[in-house]
Amino acid sequence: MRAAILPGSVEICRVRPQCRTASVSGRSFCKATSTLTRGTPLRAFPTESIASPERLPVFFSAIIPLPMKLAIAIVVLAWTASAGLAEETTPKKPNILLIVADDLGWADVGWHNSRFRTPVLDRLVREGVELDRHYVQPVCSPTRTALLSGRWTGRFGPQVLGPTNLRAFPLGTPTLASALKESGYATSITGKWHLGSRPEWGPNHYGFDHSYGSLTGAVDPWTHQYRKGEWQHTWHRDLKFFHEEGNATELVARQAVEWIRTLPEPWFVYVPFQAVHVPVDTPPEYKRPWSNVQFDPDEAKNESLRRMAAFVSQLDAKVGDFVT
Fold it and tell me: Do residues 122 and 111 touch, judged by C-beta distance below 8 A?
């Protein structure tokens, strides 16, 4: 199994396809020549053979060390099943698990000397690869737009420059899921979509065979509902709303484990957790280890940090369900 922890999407220069360029404020910085590329439109091109090289855009996953209050952590795990020596010469396509932690701050993880504890993620960093010199959007919908399309967020319109319940992608937009599906992958998403909160804008229309979780962001961990109004009822399975008991983070992880065990190979399982986005709450077992910890002399702040520590611990434990 291979783990990579890194951020953002990277585009490839159309003039020099071998040259990786990082998007910076809507422009592209050429790492080969240390110059900003000009004059030639850029679009995402593949550089690595995950499935069909001529189809796949470039995607990266990351723990992002940004100079801002919140960041989004993304972990990619890829492995192939042990099946002895294969007779065919074509390498097996790896299974791909893509995990997104929502609003996890740079200083909220153990390997950055946080007061919170993340032993599972810490181990992935030690045993995998951490790339920490990239760029990513700081909030929900823009990050997901770039991550799944491999394109700069602003190309899809002003509605996706911030968190939105409106449709992010025009129908027919190629995504990471649709590219992998065309390459023979079974594709699924469990967790937070946040790229269009109506069923007709949901993930099954953009390359996912199966979907589960919330179409909106910021759902209550226990009721699984969004704020009162048009988008309140959002918990779904394959775009059909339903009611379900349980904690959202636990349910999302449980569904991911089931798909990892049962989907035909090769599979792509995308797990964009609602954690650790507000509302912040967990089952009691994650709160107990922090009940006597003093983070801050202010009682209200201290209680808030205890709840956040419990949420980070729950997220870390659920990632552990996938990799241990």
Answer: yes
Burial of 86 (0-12, 13-18, 19+ CB in 10 A): exposed
* Closest-CA residue to 120 (of 320, 255, 286): 320
Please report, for residues 92, 153, 186, 206, 211, the alpha-carbon distance to residue 150 in angstroms, rounded to integers and kept in the order given: 24, 9, 20, 14, 21
Helical packing angle, 299-323 and 119-127, nearest 10°: 50
Put simply, whether the predicted model's pTM sits higher than 0.85 gets the answer no
- Which bin fits 138, alpha (ψ -120 to 50), beta or left (φ > 0)? alpha
- What is d(CA 88, CA 160) in angstroms, rounded to the nearest whole number? 45
Residue 175 · residue 189 · CB < 8 Å:
no
pLDDT over 90 for what percent of the chain? 67
Q: Could you list the active site residues?
A: 140, 194
For the segment 36-49, what is each residue's pLDDT rounded down to a tens digit? Answer: 333 333 233 233 33
User: Burial letters for 51-68: b for 16+ Cβ neighbours within 10 Å, e otherwise?
Assistant: beeeebbbbbbbbbebee
CB 61 within 8 Å of CB 7: yes
Distance from C-alpha of 77 to C-alpha of 271, rounded to nearest angstrom = 11
Which stretch of 71-85, 110-124, 179-193, 256-270 has the lowest confidence by average pLDDT? Answer: 71-85
| Calpha distance 224→42 (Å, rounded) | 39
